[in-house]
Amino acid sequence: MGKDYYKILGISKSASVDETKKAYRKMALKYHPDKNKEAGSEAKFKEIAEAYDVLSDSKKKDLYDKFGKDGLAGGASSSGSGAAFHYHFHGDEYDVNRGFEAEMSPEDIFEMFFGGAFSNSTTNRRRTHFHFRQNYGQPQEEPSLLHQLLHILPILVILVGGLLVQFLSNEPYYSLNRDNNYIIQRFTRDLQVPYYVKQDFERNYREKIPEVENNVEKEYITMLRNRCYQEKSNPYKNILKGETLLWTAKIRGDASLWKRAQEMELVYCKKLEELYH
């Protein structure tokens, strides 16, 4: 299985979401490179973050429990619904001039591209059968461009419609920023991170709130880390006012002003540090 994510966080397989989160915060604080200067602390911190990313996500955790780390890279088994296509050839030869024509229903095409995500009990198929026409010694006329377009038009309509449905179904439950769609402000129960949802959120996603808030906190922490890194990488370019104060403090030799300017610049690093405590 490779790395044992449960051992890395020091939890059991039956640990709850809250227990996993608490273990992660404890370990992350212990091995954070800014706090722990020992050799290997940064690598350990990355392991902890990697373990939490998997075990805090129900789908990733399920894959990891079943297939180990390799299951995360390969996804579900290729023998699943919509993953394997078995081609049955009726006859050993086919016309080399025209190749083969597949007799496929719209449901077959839809199933091929989207797997079992949109299928129902009447259209769920795991196999697509291709039938080859045999033509021996008969001249064949090339179909016109219009004929070809009309032939594939129903397939294009199905594909575009399926993509549209998939896009709408994948619309996020929340946003870290307020906009015209996400107007209701909420705060996560554990870290009190602010986020915004649609008006129907409480009614439609009540049972998913713990999972949603877990994702909110993960996204928020990732954002703080990235911005903190940018602040440390560009200490004189982040905040115009802070940059002005730095130069003023340097010219005057004012230590207190210098400290104030530094604190203004590392605002995201400060938020991240407060979050770990």
Structural category: mainly alpha
User: What helical percentage do the residues reach?
Assistant: 40-55%
Order of helices and strands: HHHHHHHEEEHHHHH
Alpha carbon gyration radius: 28 Å
In terms of per-residue confidence, which ranges show pLDDT below 50 for 5 or more consecutive residues?
Answer: 76-106, 116-138
- On the 0 to 100 scale, the average pLDDT is 72
Q: How many H/I helices? A: 12
The biggest sheet, with number of strands, parallel, antiparallel or mixed sense and barrel status, is: 3 strands, antiparallel
Overall number of structural domains: 4
Shape: extended
How many beta strands in the DSSP annotation?
3
Percent strand: under 5%
- Lateral strand order in the biggest sheet: 1-3-2
The first-to-last residue Cα distance is: 33 Å
InterPro entries: DnaJ_domain (IPR001623), DnaJ_domain_CS (IPR018253), DnaJ_subfamily_B/C (IPR051100), DUF1977_DnaJ-like (IPR015399), J_dom_sf (IPR036869)
Organism: Meloidogyne graminicola
Subcellular location: Endoplasmic reticulum membrane
GO molecular function, one term: Hsp70 protein binding
